């Protein structure tokens, strides 16, 4: 399989820049997610890697070879669009063997390859059935079979589960991941669904407005968002932001919000002006003795936990607490924060201020 690297990749459509200057590396065998909201440039990035779109600037390397100007047919990758794009009048075997016939492979060899692929996908029993009458799951397996049979260096998938209902989607996501692990394939997968990205991906790149906001393993992206955009886009409910005017000096580990001093991870960079105290709902506790105060405005019961929404002097905040914690709408509450899980942001650019804890994650860039 393949390592894929992009460097300063850019795509302009006329005066509009869809991808600004993206750089990252996808390691051999990784399940790699391109994540971001609609229109952020995920598909354009994938299409440039695949050779379906020529970059305006920058390089694409597959296994160290610069392929930016090579057409898709010369890159030996498989692009899986919508899973259901099959030839309905052909059998399963006909669909899977189609790419091999186009390559001019001999009949006996095709038969053997198709048999192997059908075995991997668990569809041997339906090889001679027309795809027209198959269930959604089986059609998806056939579409994958058609991609796998060519032994490509990498699989590129653009929202492949987009058209499926939630339950089936989850099931197919699990199957795709298992298949990836069995084949040790390099897979690049576009999605706007943060849960899908977190569940399936070894690494995630988060994009917004054509810019790479962050790149890393799911847990680092969740725990140490590099920007406010990432902190809001990932997590449900998203990270809370208490906005305040203030300052933090380099090396300091407290901030003042109104009358209250709050503990934060030791900051490496100093900043002043408009700042945000960012904390995820599960890192907030209701504690009557805590000096930082809020008022409960709503509760949402979720089984083992509940989401409690509070008003504070610095904005609304959600806490995820055990559902047996007694909470009354309208009551005042003290709020305690897990100091080591707090992220401070400067709001002028939305960047996280670096702490001892997240320095390694964000690197030096
Ligand atoms: P979605 O999930 O909605 O497809 P995306 O993140 O994949 O979003 P892209 O499809 O890469 O986004 O598109 C990025 C931006 O580039 C969008 O604003 C889109 O309208 C624009 N765009 C894409 N292709 C073209 C094109 N051929 N000509 C002009 N603009 C384009």
Description of the structure:
The chain has helices at 42-50, 92-102, 107-121, 136-148, 166-183, 194-200, 218-223, 228-233, 356-362; strands at residues 4-13, 16-26, 31-35, 57-62, 65-66, 77-80, 154-158, 186-191, 203-208, 211-216, 240-248, 254-257, 260-263, 271-279, 284-286, 293-301, 305-312, 315-322, 332-337, 343-346, 351-352. The strands form five sheets. The chain has a six-stranded mixed beta sheet with strand order 6-7-8-3-9-10, with helices on both faces. It is of the alpha+beta class and 365 residues long. The longest helix is centred in the middle third of the chain and has 18 residues, at 166-183. Strand 7 (154-158), helix 5 and strand 8 form a beta-alpha-beta unit. It starts with a strand and ends with a helix. It folds into two domains: 4-223, Rossmann fold; 228-353, OB fold (Dihydrolipoamide Acetyltransferase, E2P). Residues 13, 16, 18, 36, 38-44, 192 line the site of adenosine-5'-triphosphate.
Task: Pick out its properties.
single chain, 365 residues, alpha+beta, OB fold (Dihydrolipoamide Acetyltransferase, E2P), six-stranded mixed beta sheet, binds adenosine-5'-triphosphate
Note the run of SSEs as H and E: EEEHEEEHHHEHEHEEHHEEEEEEEEEEEH
Number of E strands: 21
* CATH evolutionary superfamily of the largest domain: P-loop containing nucleotide triphosphate hydrolases
Whole-number count of domains: 2
Nearest-angstrom radius of gyration? Answer: 24 Å
* Principal-axes shape call: elongated
The N- to C-terminal Cα distance equals: 29 Å
- Residue share in β-strands: 25-35%
Helicity range of the residues? Answer: 25-40%
Mean pLDDT: 90
Second rung of CATH, namely the architecture of the largest domain: 3-Layer(aba) Sandwich
* Regions with little confidence, pLDDT below 50 for 5+ residues: 361-365
CATH class of the largest domain: Alpha Beta
Order of strands across the biggest sheet?
Answer: 6-7-8-3-9-10
Ligands and ions found: adenosine-5'-triphosphate
- CATH fold-level name of the largest domain: Rossmann fold
């Amino acid at each position: 399989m393949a390592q894929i690297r992009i460097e300063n990749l850019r795509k302009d459509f006329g005066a509009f820049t869809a991808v600004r200057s993206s750089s990252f590396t996808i390691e051999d065998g990784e399940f790699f997610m391109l994540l971001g909201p609609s229109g952020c440039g995920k598909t354009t990035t994938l299409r440039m890697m695949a050779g379906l779109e020529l970059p305006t600037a920058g390089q694409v390397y597959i296994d160290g070879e610069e392929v930016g100007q090579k057409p898709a047919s010369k890159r030996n990758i498989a692009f899986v669009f919508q899973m259901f794009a099959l030839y309905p009048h052909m059998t399963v075997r006909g669909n899977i063997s189609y790419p091999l016939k186009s390559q001019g492979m001999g009949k006996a060899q095709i038969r053997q390859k198709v048999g192997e692929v059908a075995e991997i996908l668990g569809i041997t029993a339906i090889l001679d059935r027309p795809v027209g009458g198959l269930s959604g799951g089986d059609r998806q397996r056939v579409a994958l079979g058609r991609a796998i049979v060519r032994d490509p260096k990498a699989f590129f998938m653009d929202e492949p589960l987009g058209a499926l209902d939630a339950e089936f989607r989850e099931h197919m996501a699990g199957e795709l991941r298992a298949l990836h692990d069995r084949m040790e394939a390099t897979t690049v997968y576009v999605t706007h669904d943060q849960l899908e990205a977190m569940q399936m991906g070894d690494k995630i790149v988060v994009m917004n407005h054509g810019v790479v906001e962050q790149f890393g393993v799911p847990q680092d992206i969740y725990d140490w968002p590099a920007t406010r955009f990432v902190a809001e886009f990932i997590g449900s409910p998203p990270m809370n932001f208490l906005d305040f005017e203030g300052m933090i000096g380099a090396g300091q580990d407290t901030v003042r919000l109104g009358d209250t001093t709050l503990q934060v991870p030791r900051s490496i960079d100093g900043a002043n002006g408009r700042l945000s105290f960012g904390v995820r709902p599960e890192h907030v506790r209701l504690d009557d003795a805590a000096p930082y105060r809020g008022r409960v405005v709503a509760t949402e019961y979720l089984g083992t936990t509940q989401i409690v929404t509070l008003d504070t002097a610095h904005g609304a905040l959600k806490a995820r607490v055990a559902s047996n914690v007694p909470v009354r709408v309208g009551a005042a509450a003290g709020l305690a924060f897990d100091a080591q899980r707090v992220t401070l942001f400067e709001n002028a650019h939305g960047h996280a201020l670096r702490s001892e804890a997240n320095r390694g994650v964000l690197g030096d860039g």
